[in-house]
Specification:
The complex is a heterotrimer. By secondary structure, chain A is an alpha/beta fold. Helix content of chain A is about 40%, strand content about 25%. Chain A folds into two domains: about 25-125 and about 220-270, D-Maltodextrin-Binding Protein, domain 2 (3-Layer(aba) Sandwich); about 130-220, D-Maltodextrin-Binding Protein, domain 2, CATH 3.40.190.10. Chain A is built from eleven helices and 15 strands. In chain A, strand 10 (about 150-155), helix 7 and strand 11 (about 170-175) form a beta-alpha-beta unit. Chain B is an alpha/beta fold. Chain B contains nine helices and ten strands. In chain B, the strands form two sheets. In chain B, strands 6-7-8-3-9-10 form a six-stranded mixed beta sheet, with helices on both faces. Chain B has a four-stranded antiparallel beta sheet with strand order 2-1-4-5, covered by helices on one side. Chain B starts with a strand and ends with a helix. By secondary structure, chain C is an all-alpha fold. Chain C has one domain (about 15-165): MetI-like (MetI-like fold, Orthogonal Bundle). Chain C has helices at about 1-40, 45-60, 65-80, 85-110, 115-120, 125-155, 170-180, 180-210. The chains are: A alpha/beta, B alpha/beta, C mainly alpha. Chains in contact: A-C, B-C. The interface between A and C is medium-sized, with 35 and 31 residues.
Chain lengths: ~270, ~240, ~210
Amino acid sequence: MKKLVYAMAMLFGLSLLSGCGKSISDQSVLKNIRQSKTITWAVEGDKKLFSLIDIRDDHEKGFDIDMAKAITKEILGPKGQAQFTLATAQSRIPLLKNGNVDAVIATLTITPERAKIISFSKSYFQAGKSLLVPKGSPVKKVSDLNGKTVIGIVGDNSVEIIKKVAPRAKVVAMQDYGQAVSALKSHQGDALTSDNGILYGIAAQNPEELEVTGGTFTKEPYGIAVNLNQAPFHRAINRAIDKLHRNGEYNRLIKKWFGQVPGFNYKEMYYK
Amino acid sequence: MSMVEFHDVQKYYGKFHALHDINLKIDKGETVVLIGPSGSGKSTLIRTINRLESIQGGKLIVNNQDLSNPKTDSNRLRQDVGMVFQHFNLYKNKNVLENIMLAPRIVSHLPEEENKKQALDLLKMVGLEDKAQNMPAQISGGQKQRVAIARSLAMRPKLLLFDEPTSALDPEMIDDVLQVIKKVTSASEMTSLIVTHEMGFAKEVANRVIFMDEGQIVEDDESALFYKKPQTMRAQQFLSKIISH
Amino acid sequence: MINIFNHFGNQLLDGFGWTLLASFLALVFSLLFGILLALLEVVPAKFANQVGRTYVEIFRNIPLLIIVMFFYLIVPKYFVQLDGFSAGTIGLFLYTSAFIAEIIRSGIQAVSNGQMEGARSTGMTYQQALQHIILPQALKIVIPPLGNQFVSLIKDSSILAFVAGFDLMYQANAIASVTFDTINSYLVIGVLYLLITMPLSYYMQYLEKRLA
């Protein structure tokens, strides 16, 4: 029994240690990135249209990536470098809080809970939760989900949302989108829920089997996340987004990534 | 009536010809000693008799059962053919009494009370009634071998095979074991075949001596005759080496 | 850490229960199946040896995740519906069986051949010799490595998180995703895993001493 107590005490000690080390997020990120001419972004690797690793050249490609590059150039000038660190839905916020990255641009929805621990830029994309189902599925809208199994992603807020809009649905959370889509195809769930942009990307990859249905049932504004108390960096990002909106670069990127997606009205996403 | 009959028996280990044209007949009640240099095939021969080794040619009849026939039941055969090993092979997970009682209980279904009485009698016979509750690891090599003899007797065999029963023992323990073997083999109904290097003992108990070399039976004599004047050169050389020791 | 336990106690308890159940089921079935496989490997019958050998080589040389995914994604698509918990537990049991078979096979083979010959020479059948002489001795030899394997199995049960099996790891991931406190979420379940593995370790050590 003694050993068990020791082991637990050690784990407990570790947890106290983990509470320390705040110093990284206290330094001025803006100052640092101006010196290094580099902004390090946390991005995802498994989201077609937003940020998907192209296995031919190992580079991330998508709307989030292009936005990150454009914002980097706006803040640091034409020589500024955007560096990308791969994150999952689960690790994107811890990576930021631990100081491994300067900012997160990873289909991250602005929510009040998250806003307590990180600071969001103004929204750069208006998404909404939707449903992806096998073609011909009886599920047509979100209320059809009661009594059914819904697949979500660990770390994605769709899990909580489903519990509210369809309380009698059973939710299973998968580790990433690849697994979630496989699970849907293997009938482990009746629908996969996530943001419409992401789901359209998946449907475009599986046009024979899957389709998006039921429109959006929430509003999910995506924001860029930086650490709290980085006001100068935060302001710089907002200024950069405004600039991209005004000079037409933003609309160009929307058209580039979403112009070809069947069923998706990309013009609604334009900055007007 | 014969207990064991070898007719042109052959045994191979892969390409190695371990037993060559063995022809041998042992009658009921005989006590036969098998000698020869190491590697001559003595152990192999004795182990074919209870089918611990298979044969590849010829005919082998033991207790009226044809061992060359693959359908012959080895388990049935072994109930009548006991074996005592060089390294005792007592069951390490059972105490002395259980070592003796196990086979009669699960193989011949002897009633428990009778089984226990028999086991205690056998232990008394080998002089170890006070060791009944000991584990094999707690007794000496000589005591282990006496228990092993008691164990094989508990199945009431008609034929007993001894495979170098004293070779693994310290010298001061050999005599006790030999006394027990002598007692057992002298019973008129018992047929025994003993592989041994103990020449003095062999002379005393055997009515027949078989000398083997290189997988063949070289000489097969009445005991007295063998010691007086072996027929072959190889047996003479072997004997002179052993006796000069 | 305490905070997480206060807020998510029910969820953690739930995960603890599922982890315990998956571990228990996988342990019992992999022990029984592992013994069977080990016997297939040692009995004097070439075909059985081949079958046992093949199974062991395949299952211990494939990552557990792939086996579990097979039962989660492929089996439901073509054969029978399995939820994450069942798929994870079945995968875990089949995978662990291969390792247990190896442990028991080597345990049986570590018992000297003389024990088998001693038993067979009194007329016992192969099965009787195994049951009364060989297996009881092998048991003593295999207890320590078997204990290690059981502890591994419990830790490996965290594979259920990947197929939404509601186990401790799954709950920790879920808690981390709402609290953003990944470190403490994992530390809490670290303690809960210890609560299962340490008593098991002690019990195996006790068995080892008692049988010695």
